[in-house]
Sequence to fold (133 residues):
Amino acid sequence: MGKYFTIDELCRSDKASELGIDNTPSSMLVRNMEYLIENLLDPIREKLGRPIHVTSGYRNDQLNKAVGGTTGSQHTKGEAVDITLKSRERNRRLFELVRNSGLEFDQLIDEKNYQWLHVSLTKGKNRKQILHL
Fold:
């Protein structure tokens, strides 16, 4: 567990509850999420100075398919989260904060004109990929 984020928070899913999907991660996936929290999410929260809402974190393959996620998504590996500050303008500023933070990340994606942001981090080589979808 990190300073600001929890594994439970990253695994919580209204869609999983609605469909009766058990979204409990394996211990390896928990380690990936702990790494993501400690090395990216908590540092982003520290730099921002205010809470960040996680809209989607870990998704097992069944849940990922149910929400229309891509096959092989980093969400299924415990390496990605979708986050928001609940406004496009605040999300745009958060995007710039992450982009310019010097923090290691694999992907930083502006989803649907800043409706939310996707951020990911791997334990391997990170691409520092910045996308607008």
About this structure: The beta strands are 53-56, 80-84, 107-111, 116-120, 129-132. Helices lie at 7-11, 14-19, 27-48, 61-66, 88-99. The CA atoms of residues 2 and 38 lie 6 Å apart. The first helix runs from residue 7 to 11.
